From TrEMBL:
Name of the protein in question: LuxR C-terminal-related transcriptional regulator
Top-level taxonomic group: Bacteria
Keywords: DNA-binding
Segments forming domain HTH luxR-type: 128-183
Organism whose genome encodes this protein: Enterobacter nematophilus
Pfam families documented for this protein: GerE
Length: 183
């Protein structure tokens, strides 16, 4: 079994790497930042931990998942995320249905995470608050600096519809405004 642990904060990645190595001496574990590299294809299990937002690390994660999907990778991806990231992670799981994706809460201890990764999950947590494609699209555009008026024009919707999608998405992500998504 070989693992790749990607995290923008090296402390978590190294801690999880050490915990996995302690559980099984035959395990190969590499760690690095959240970005695509060809060596990921050689791993059976990919663990990605990042603070999910619509920008930054999220875009790097989407790039990784697109690359894996295009190459028909048959390993397992674990998305380790915080509470606000559950809806986005669930959206990614639906979008990349060809990949085996599991979601793990980042509040669990590193030792417990190593235990979970060593075993096949029995069930997958689902959310009723998953973002719809349009909610995700509107949020993505707004976080990237487009105005509500511009998004309405580009998506051929009214400004009121765009605002409604934005408000619904923010409620699902437990955020009061767009700035909270970026922090």
């Amino acid at each position: 079994m070989s693992y790749a642990i990607l995290d923008n904060n090296r402390f978590y990645a190294e801690g999880l790497r050490y915990a996995l190595l302690r559980r099984n001496a035959q395990t190969q574990v590499e760690s690095g930042t959240v970005k695509w590299c060809r060596s990921l294809l050689a791993c059976n299990t990919l663990v990605v931990r990042c603070r999910f937002s619509v920008a930054g690390a999220h875009l790097a994660l989407v790039d990784i998942l697109l690359q894996l999907e295009a190459r028909r990778w048959e390993g397992t991806v674990y998305l380790v995320c915080n509470e606000k990231g559950w809806a986005l992670a669930t959206h990614l799981r639906k979008r990349f249905a060809a990949l085996t994706l599991y979601i793990i809460d980042d509040r669990i201890a590193v030792a417990d995470a190593a235990y979970l990764l060593a075993r096949e999950p029995r069930r997958v947590r689902t959310l009723n608050c998953c973002l719809t494609g349009m909610e995700f699209n509107v949020l993505d555009r707004l976080v990237n600096g487009q105005s509500v008026r511009h998004v309405a024009h580009m998506t051929q919707m009214s400004e009121k519809q765009v605002s409604t999608y934005k408000c619904n998405a923010l409620k699902k992500l437990n955020a009061n405004n767009l700035l909270q998504l970026l922090l």
